[in-house]
Amino acid sequence: AMSRYPISLDRPVGNSEDSHFGDLLPDSGAESPAIGAAQEMLRTRITKVLKTLSYREREIIKLRYGLGDGYSYTLEEVGHIFKVTRERIRQIEAKAVRKLQQPSRSAELSGFLD
Q: Which of 25, 87, 96, 113 has a 20 to 30 Å separation from 57 between CA atoms?
């Protein structure tokens, strides 16, 4: 029969001092190993595809799409970093995106984008 009284998650399990009820609960925030592996594969493939771009194109794409620190920089901010106008950044980004859309490169990511 289920207990109707609350039990502390810090309460020891059995005679053990190192094991608590809270340790037995599944972590709903943790991603499944399969999802983690898929994300790692995607990261690896994105890195591989980005390596086909020039250094500047690659860095601009990473900054604009938040691929480094998770923050997506504005054209203005990226322009300051590279000491060029935002219009120049827009042009370089557009050229890089066109390159990434070429079948030889986009095929590398096909399984993830369907």
A: 113
SS3 20: strand
pTM: 0.63
Q: Do 60 and 89 meet the contact criterion of CB atoms below 8 Å apart?
A: yes
* 98: amino acid identity, one letter: R
- In whole angstroms, give the CA distance from residue 114 to residue 111: 6
Residue tagged 């039990």 (tokens): 7
The domain spans of the chain are 54-114
Q: What would the two tokens of residue 66 be?
A: 């938040």
For residue range 11-55, list pLDDT tens digits in order.
888 777 788 878 777 777 777 888 888 888 888 888 899 999 999
| Strand, helix or coil for residue 53 | coil
Q: Domain 54-114: give its CATH architecture.
A: Orthogonal Bundle (1.10)
